[in-house]
Amino acid sequence: MNLSHRLPRLAVLGVLAALTAACASTTNQAPAPVAPAAPQFTSPITAQQVVGKWGLAAYHRPEDAARTEAQARQGCRQPYVINAGPSGGFMMYLADQSEPSEVVSKQVLPGPIYIGLPDEPPGAQSDREVLRFDGQVLVLKWLDPEVAGRYGTMVYVRCP
After folding, report:
1. Which of 11, 23, 75, 146 to pair with 66, CA 20 to 30 A apart?
2. What is the DSSP letter of 54?
3. Helix (H, G, I), strand (E, B) or coil at 118
4. In 3-state terms, what secondary structure has residue 8?
5. pLDDT by residue (tens digit) across 20-71?
């Protein structure tokens, strides 16, 4: 066969080879789904800052806050004890629990600070929002409205 007859065949083979290569390099596979990352939270209040003995009182009306803080100071006669937890958190009672659970402070910046179970996201139903913390006074509000209605806003005052 002479060259003039081979050229059309070679051209067709070249085009087929190029198309085959293009198909091999572009597959129709969808990209693997990326699992959404859970928001990472910081722990702005450390266990060392809250471990110790605290006077405890609670209020339901905001106008009772100052009086309740004074009552919490008197509660140091029978203090509420916060111990260090085994995994770096601190031990506090959750609502309606007879045994303390290990909790942590947690925050997704720039949001509020919460205290709750470390395996739940900040702001979980069982969390308490930190309304005030200065090292000597800790004020916590339950997020669950039913629990907040029963327990009120908790005021902890560090015992001397």
Report:
1. 146
2. E
3. coil
4. helix
5. 454 544 445 555 555 445 556 788 899 999 999 999 999 999 999 999 999 9
Closest CA to 68 of 139, 132, 133: 139
Distance separating alpha carbons of residues 100 and 80, to the nearest angstrom: 11
Neighbours of 72 (CB within 10 A): 25
Q: Write down the residue that tokens 């409205």 correspond to.
A: 145
CA atoms within 13 A on the CB side of 119: 3
CA distances for 41 relative to 44, 45, 72, 130, angstroms: 9, 12, 30, 15
Amino acid at 11: A
Rounded Cα gap, residues 87 and 49, in angstroms: 16
pLDDT at 2: 52
